[in-house]
Amino acid sequence: MTSWLEHTVQAEVDAPIDFVWGLWSDLEQMPRWMKWIDSVKVMDDDPDLSRWKLASGALEFTWLSKTVKVVPLQILQWESVDGLPNRGAVRFYDRHGSSIVKLTVAYGVPDWLARLMDNGFVGRVVETTLQADMNRFTEYAAKAKDDSKV
Known about the structure:
- By secondary structure, this protein is α+β, with helices and mostly antiparallel strands.
- It contains 3 helices and 7 strands; from the N terminus they run βαββββββαα.
- It has helices at about 15-25, 110-120, 120-150; strands spanning about 1-15, 35-40, 50-55, 60-70, 75-85, 85-95, 100-110.
- A hairpin with a 6-residue loop joins strand 2 (about 35-40) and strand 3.
- Helix 2 packs across helix 3.
- The mean pLDDT is about 90.
């Protein structure tokens, strides 16, 4: 049996929502701020599909993801269609000059592993890593915003 685990993290980004949306929606740039994401390749023949590779130490997973919902400046939602079972959404909230970015990631794991991860160390590591990714995105956006002023 498979259980779904879900983690939600968020960050406030000191940049306008259209700028933040533009950075985040360029999926192939995600390895710049997401520690475990080794690569993302948007498919040339279908831009709603992208091939992802997650690598951390000896662990390596790949999956094909489909963008299932896009509301510009509000939400980018996906689900895997092959490989590692996962789904989630990134939500954007306009704070009139700054933005809140809220990331929710869910992934399917065997029940026995879910029990270990949900209440234990591994689950906290995943959430801590995702929050660190959001913090790196905040720094990435700040640098990109400064670079765009030059």
